[in-house]
Design goal:
single chain; alpha/beta; Arginase, Chain A; eight-stranded parallel sheet; about 35% helix; binds arginine; binds manganese (II) ion
Amino acid sequence: MSTVPTISAISVPFDLGAGRRGASKGPKTILQAGLLRGLQQMGITAEHTGEIRLPDDQAAPLAAEVNHTNLKYLAEVVEVNTRLAKEVSRVVQQGHFPLILGGDHSIAIGTIAGLSEHYTNLGVIWIDAHSDLNTAETSPSGNIHGMSLAVSLGMGHPLLTEIQHKQPKIKPENIVLIGSRSLDEGEKKLIRSLGIKCFTMYDIDRKGMAHVMQEAIDYISAKTDGVHLSYDVDSLDPLEAPGTGTTVKGGLHFREAHLAVEMLAEAGIVTSAEFVEVNPLLDDNNKTSHLAVGLISSLLGKQIL
Ligand SMILES: NC(=[NH2+])NCCC[C@H](N)C(=O)O
Ligand SMILES: [Mn+2]
Ligand SMILES: [Mn+2]
């Protein structure tokens, strides 16, 4: 059935980039929801390469010690992403498809850093209620998961932007945001000033998901040599995906979410993906983990008929 390369799933049980704990338990519940078995049933070769985590001696400091900064848990975020970047780079080198299971969205920093070694024009499709384009200066929370896309553009603390190598990892014109509906003032300014392609919920309502995805695919495939899908499950409506830390109402419905990844599968442009912000502690019977498994399967070619 498939021409999909071998999938290497990488778990990143990390949640110190987020304001609430629990996303660190996401990789395990996604795997328990039958991810690998499902892919194997589709005829795909899929392996789990292991977990990227902090060394045991880098136990998280007490929240009180880090909450006075606007870059909470900076050292931990740097460490885990440095490790993740190396692993992602190794998987690409091997010719496999990296599938990163988060974890909060700060792990996109390491994923994209590792990928950027292998592409000169890496495209990024960022499906998210948010744009994660804050810096310490603009962030309302100090949570680094709200900064990861800015970091990948080379903006922010050097310890973050210089992971893997010093250059910016992606270019603004190679990014497409989809599902945006909660943007901070600094983020809006940046989207406008850099001319980042952004399909908000307004655009999805106005044009329909099929139209938006076709535009996004045409836009990005024309100028990139690889496309990374960074999928934050809070892009979905909280009714569909209650198990996530920063829900925003008015999100994607189940069918829109599936259509988006089905169209990406059909276009055959995606070369890596990450699914982040599944928080089983906030979930309803692991509904959000099962949803993630369904979306990953659709992305990798599962069809209704
Ligand atoms: N990956 C996420 N869920 N990010 C949420 C970010 C929320 C908000 N914009 C902030 O910077 O704090
Ligand atoms: Mn996000
Ligand atoms: Mn989000």
